[in-house]
Amino acid sequence: MVPHLVLVHGSRLSGAQWAPQLPLLERHASVGLPDLPGHGSRAGETFSLARSVEVVDEAVNAAPAGASVVLVGHSLGGYVAMAYAQHHADRLDGLVLAGCSATPKGLGAAVYRGVAALSDRLGPHRMTRINDRVLRTRYRADLIDPVIGGGYWFEPTTAAWNDVIDLCRPDMLAEVPCPVLFLNGQFDQFRFGVRDFLAQCPQAQVQILPRASHLANLDRPRAFGDALLRFTADVA
Q: What single-letter DSSP state applies at residue 231?
């Protein structure tokens, strides 16, 4: 039986974020790509962490009977994955957390509230132009065009990050028994609080992808996919 991977995207993107990994992953696993509330196919829904957990549960329950299930979350999706594991750890065989090993409090929380407020002020049209320019400058067209094609979703940003800041802490992982991997880019500002998470989840592994930023699955698409498959093979 092939394993089942559920990949949860980051803020403002959709399941299309994982397009660079799909050709590799789908050769070895079934894959679920849920869109979080307010994003992609769920653009009409209001974001909340609780509703996001329900959406992830639907994707987990879609696994083939008997398949091992590995939940993967990036950034906002990583905090959602932690919340899911906190309440439904018995349904997971493994958990991969990418770009979310920072405790959202203090100055960092203030910065992200400010970023969300700025996005609201600039509006979706200007933010779309900014995102397009940044992503097309950094990445090859064949890599980034499918990701951009999934659209940007700015409206839920404030609600999403308010929930993360108010509700997400390392102790969410304290009762999670399954294997956990923190998979971070070398230059990701979200990885520098990983020790706080390891204190709560000592069985976790840490892997750093050299020359990768917060968008590690785009910076190092093959290395990111290979890391997921190695971890999945171990837990399966």
A: H
Rounded-to-10 torsion of CA 38, 82, 74, 208: 170
69/56 Cα distance (integer angstroms): 12
pLDDT tens, position by position, 141-177: 999 999 999 999 999 999 999 999 999 999 999 999 9
Q: How far apart are the C-alpha atoms of 1 and 12, rounded to whole Å?
A: 34
Contact criterion met (CB below 8 Å) for 182 and 102: no
Joined together, the tokens standing for residue 102 give 């920072």
Q: Could you give the CA distance from residue 163 to residue 116 in angstroms, rounded to a whole number?
A: 12
CA dist 28 and 89 (Å) reads: 23
Count the Cβ atoms, other than its own, within 10 Å of residue 101: 24
| Cα 174 to Cα 163: distance, rounded to the nearest angstrom | 20
Residues forming beta bridges with residue 73, ordered by sequence position:
8, 97
Instruction: Find the largest Cα–Cα distance for the chain.
Output: 49
d(CA 71, CA 67): 13
Q: What's the CATH number where 180 sits?
A: 3.40.50.1820
Closest CA to 16 of 164, 127, 153, 129: 153
pTM for the structure as a whole: 0.96
Domain region containing 34: 4-235
Number of domains in the chain: 1
